[in-house]
Structure formats: structure tokens, C-alpha cells
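1st attempt posting a full record on here, be nice pls
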Amino acid sequence: MRLLEDRDSDGTTLFNRLKKPAKGPTWSHFKNLTKRLEWLDELGDTDVWMDGVAAGKVTDFAGEADAADASELRDFVPVKRIALVAVLTHKARMRVRDDLATMFCKRVATKIKKAKAELEEIRLAEREIVEALIGNYRTVLKHIDEDGPAQEALTKAAAMTAEVRQALDGLDAEASVDEVATRLEGRVSPAVLALVKAQVVQAGGFGAVTRAVDGFGGFAKQYEQIEKVSAHHGNFWEVLLYGQIGRDRAVMFDLADNDKLKFTATSEDSRVLDALTHAQRHQAARGEYITAFNEEGKEVDISFATQNWRKAVVDRTRTGQFVRKHFEAMVFTALAEELRTGDVAVVGSEEYADWSEQLLDWEAVQETLGSYLVEVGLAEQGESAEFDAKFFRRQLEDKLRGAAAAADAGYPENDGLVIDPETGIPSLKAFRADGQRPSAKRLEQEIKARMPERSLMGIVARTAYWVEWWRRFGPPSGNEPKLTDPLGRYVIVTFVKGTNMGPYVSIVLLNEAVADLVNAHARLDISQAWGDGTAVAADGTHMDTYLDNLLSETSVRYGKPGGIAYRHVSDTYIALFTHFIPCGVWEAVYIIEGLLKNTSEVQPTTVHADTQGQSFPVFALAHLLGFDLMPRIRNWKELTFYRPSKQSEYVHIDALFGEPGKNVIDFDLIESQFRHLMRVAVSVREGTISSSTLLKRLRSGSRKNATYAAFREVGRVVRTVQLLRYLSDAPLRRRVTAATNKVESFNRFSQWIGFGNCGVIADNDPIEQEKAMKFNALLTNAVIFHNALDIAEIVRQLLEEGWEIDPEDLAHISPYLTEHINRFGEYSTHELGIQPEAYDPKLDVDFAPLREQDLTAAVLGQAA
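the predicted structure (as C-alpha cells):
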């Protein structure tokens, strides 16, 4: 228990060191993190300690230990104290391996970025060299051109040589001396003189060219400049990477030592790890070359590398050898990529564990497959017994053929889609949004004018009384909080954290509190004006954060550092789930995770997203889990439409599918991978593997992953079907646009509420950053719920005054109203002690016509 007693260099206990998050991916932090790994491993083999303990219990105990400090743990009975410290140590050993692997990948990515930047700098510098070489070449050309001095000299020399040849005409090598003397009749001296003159003139002509080259620094200098330009011709940044790796080399090699991180291949393909072993064996070498043969005398297989890398590593003049520095850089690059794709795993890690080992066995899947297929809509009741590989294949084939046939048959009446008969280029006509009806505008103005003035603190307090979401909070142990006024304290914490104005609640409990507000909102009649909860939209928005952590990085999409608040917003305007994710992660990775982690009573089946919310594996997994993924597809012209077979042709829309006989779905592959597809889907549903972990690994960069190939093929079917629906159904396109606009409006509304600290999340701990996002979602949802109640109360007043309320007009009024809310000034807590009257969820407005409109539009869309 020395962790609770011994002090660190900063005066805190060593127990506190267990909880410290990793810092930013700098070289010094990278090096220090390896030392942290050594320290944690010296504490003991926690894998043995945790053997036989349920994973859920480990997670719960680790969360409780993480929320406590050393003084609190000393108050626990010895058995529990030891258990909590042991579990937290185990989690810390896993996390440091995750952090090291992540930092390694980020360091390699940074070095590649710098190598590419260096290449651009070289190209800029070489422009001057290229311009000089062009000028030099122009000068040389002028000397040897038709009117140049070299050509003039050559002409004179040729004439003189002709005179000599004429004088010696008829003579050959066998002619006798007397014959030559007689023939020349004394003209030998003039002939020889002419020949010498011709040679002098000719040499002078070429001398002009030589002097020109000498004026440019000589031939050697010209060759050097030409080679310098040629060396960096094209996108050959690989030869520059080793120079960027520099002092990272020693840390990277040290990290790859089995005593540090133990890497293992997740397939039978171990070429990258074999190459890593070869590089480690020659780590101490300082020469330019190392042998290309391993200890067994076999040549090291580098066929995994790109053509550029092989060009850099293999010197054709040195058979059987590798260029050492380029070989090492190639290995580190390949290792980072395979860690990202899951082709290489880290033993003892959590995020980089062998994901295939987290899948359920086929025998376990078979036990629940029938009920699962019915639950997600892949099979009807009674069909599941027949659902096998051939059934699944036929189902997908029919789905694609049906969608294509419907789109083709409906094309003549499809006013929105136009395919040029000459070029085959398709285009969608832009639609004009229907303007707000006068009655809706009048109703909106009246509601806004009557909205009562509210304070954020008062809104949080009243929703806490009504919904009692604050009861979700408390000690991680699950015991009752030892606070004199828990409601008041938790309201203040939510207000402060939700507005981002300051720094005791776990992420799980925050999710439950958010779900309480979602459920309460869904029970309000007014929420039916906006939707029925069956659809959700997902989108991310950039958030500024402190930078000294592994999550924060520069976003290509937003052009600045920070993280992404990725939210799932219901068609009823309220947020179902919020993630805080790195900028460098494809947002689509988290689109399904939010749906699966949503514990509220609102369980949508249709999910909309922006262009970022799509990829083949995402479409496939959404289909297998029973979700209808329909993103806003802005770049649809650049996407490939896939045919059901080579013979499939269409009267009107064949141009969409490209060249006849091409872009055909490989249904044989899908059928052969049926069991694996079902294992993955059921495992995700059962929670043995998260969808985000899976989708991070199912990347196009993985050349070894048969699972990716199968998901890609299923995804091609589903995306083609969705593209055809999207192009054929104008109302559907409007619904998708409206849904994605709604989540964008939520992002702006939540940022308006989270006004503190200029919107910057003032913490480097990723867990605290995640909490900050969820507190903000909790507060935002509380405001939405309260606004909905105020709107409903005003509608009751209007009904009593004789107004006729059209539900379609009410549907145009968003609960994202801000004018009546006081964010600034004195934050009084007097409202915490005022218990509000019970709210009325009922509203005497018939919303059935709105649902009938939605149902009609959906049926027409499916028919199209």
C-alpha cells in the first residue's frame, strides 16, 4: 500500500500518479511515457491479479478508485482498499500501453508530415535551380544552333576536310609510297595543313560550348544540380523521413522491445513484425547498408511496402542489402499503419488489443442469432431458421435489384434527377424550401413575445425538481451522497460545468441523467410537433481545448487544433448522446456507437448524417444492426454505383453505373463471409466489442483484413441502394437536409449555452473533456425541455383565447429559443429552494396529421 503513502516529486502520492493522463505527443513526453510503463510494470503482473474477475466489475471498481483520493481510500476496509488500488493499477497498465501506441502512431504521422513539408521546401528551393538549368541549357542550345558559333565552325571544318579528301581521292591503305608521292605531286604539306586547320576549327566550335558550361560552374556542378532535382522528382518523401525521425529512433526501438510493448499479428501475415525483428537485430549498426537476409538465410520480405519505399530501401548496385536508415523508417511507418488498422495488436492493451479475440464464437452466436435477426429486421418471425449464407445473399441481391428497378421505372416522372443523354452525366435540380406560412410566422412571433424571462440557474433547478435527473449523481460506490443539500449542489455543478465556467460525476452517470431528460421530453405532447423519435441526426462540431494531451490535434476539416463534440440529436430536437472525439478520427466511426450507447426510451431506427457520416463498413454495420443510415450525400456524383451482376442493364439510369459489365458486387465473397459478418454484428450488439473499435480497424488501409473486404462489399450494396433512394425521392432529400440542419442548430445552441472560458475546454484530461461535453449536453437538454414546457403553456393560453392552432404551424417553432434567457449578471441561488408546481405534459392539439404525412412520405419514398 505504499502507493497511498509514498510521495512523488510534486508532493502528491504515488496513487495520484496512477491517474495522470498522458500529455501531448512531444519527444520528451514520448520518452517519459516509456519510463511510466516501466514503473507500472514493476508494480506487478496485474493480468494474473485480474484473472477470473468479470470485465464489468473491473471497470466499475476502476471508476470508483479513480474518483477517490488517497485519504478517502485509507478510510476503506483493507480488503476493499487493496481491491480498488489493484484494479486501478491494472487499468493504468492497460492505459499506458494504449497511450504509448497512440503516441507512437502520432509521432510517426508527425514525422511523415514534416518529411512532406521538407519535400515541398526542397521543391521551392529547386525552382531556382531548375530555372538556372533551363537558362544554362538555352545558352548551350544557342551555341550549337544553326546560326551559332559551333555550327559555323563545324561547317568550315567540314569544307576543309572535303579538300583533303579530294586531294587524297583514289588512295587507300594499300597504296605504295611512290604512288602516293606521284599522285600528290608535292601537295602533301598543303593537305596536311588543311586537315590540321579543320581540326582546330572544329575543336574551337565545341570549345565555345565547353566554355559556356564552365561559366555555369563546370560539368560536375551541372550534374550535381540535375541529380539534386531528380532525387526529389515526384512525391518521394520517403527518402527524407529518416532525417525527421532523429532522436525518436532510440525511443521507438526501445518501445518495440518485448519488455515494453509486445506486438502480435492479428492474422497469419507477420511480414511487418518480421521486418521489425530484422531492424532490431541490426539496431546497433552504423553503416549505410545492412544485410537483406535474416538469421535463417532467407531474404526479408518487404512486399508489404509501397513502390516508393522499396525504391528507397533497395539499392540495385548492392545486391542482398538494404539501405539501413530507409529500412528502419519504412518499418516504423508500416508498424504505425498496422496498429491503426488492427493488423498488429499490443498485448496488454485495451484500445489496441486483438479485436478479433473480442468476437463471440460462432457457437455462441448461433444460440441468439434467430432472435437477433428478428429484432434488427433482417428476418421475419419464423424466417430465422432458414436464414443462412444463401438466404442473406439472396436478400441483398433482391434489395439491390429492387432499388435499381424502381429508380429506373420512376425516372420518367422524377423531375429532380436529370441524366444527360449525350454525356451520361447526372445532375440533381436544387429544390426551393417552402417558405414559412403566414399563420406559422404569426404563431411563432406570439410565442416568442410571451416566453417568460428565465435564468439558466432557474431552468436547471426546476428541471432537477421535475425530472429528478440529479439523483443519478453520487459516489461511484453507489452509496447515497453525504451532502446536506445534494439537489442544490448537483444543480450548481451542472450549471458551472454545463456553461464551461469551471471544473464529481462519472461519464456513465452523466449519460443516465441525460437519458432522464430525454425520456421526460419524449412524454411531452408538444414534442410530437417536431417528430416521433424514430429518426436521429449525427454531426460533429469543433471545440477548442488545452493542447497538452493525446486527444487534441489539428483538424483538417476545421483548420485548427482541439477536439470534436459529436452529437446524436433526435428529430424532436433533444440530444440523445454526445461523444468527444479526436479531430483525426473519421466521424462516421462513432455514428453507430452513439445509437448503441443511448439508454433512453427514445430508440431511433433511422440515422442521418453529413457527408462525414458515411463509409462502406459503416453502411454495412448499420444494415446488420437494423439501422437505416441515410446521410446527406453532397459528393454523390463522385461515388460509384454498383450493379447486381454483369448482365444488369437499365433503360434510363444505366449511365449511373458506369461502363456496362463493370462495378459488379462480389456476392460470392459476401456469401463466403456470412458467419464472420454475423459474428461481428452479434458481438457488437452484445457489447463484447464496441462499434467504434471495430470501425477504426475496418479501414481501406488494411490489406490483410478479410472482414474489411466482406464489410466493404455489403456496404457497396447498401450505399448503392441508399443513393438510388436519395436520387429518386425528393421528400426524402428534404427530410435528410432538415435533420442535418437540426443537429447543426443544436451545436450552435449548445455553444451559446457553454459560453464560459470563451468556449475553451480548460482541461488536458480526456475524461474530463468528455465530461465537459456531457455536462453541456445535460444543461442544453434541460433548457430545451424547459423551453418546450413554456411553449406548451403559451399554446394553452392561446387556445383559451380562441386561437386555432395548426400542428403544422407548431412544427415550425424550434425550442432552441434564447432571447428570454439571462446568461449573465448575478448568479443567484435563491431559486434552488423554490419547488415548482408540477408540469402538465398534455396539450390539446391533434398531432396525428403530422405523423400521417410522415408515414405517407415514407411509403411513397419506398415505392419510388
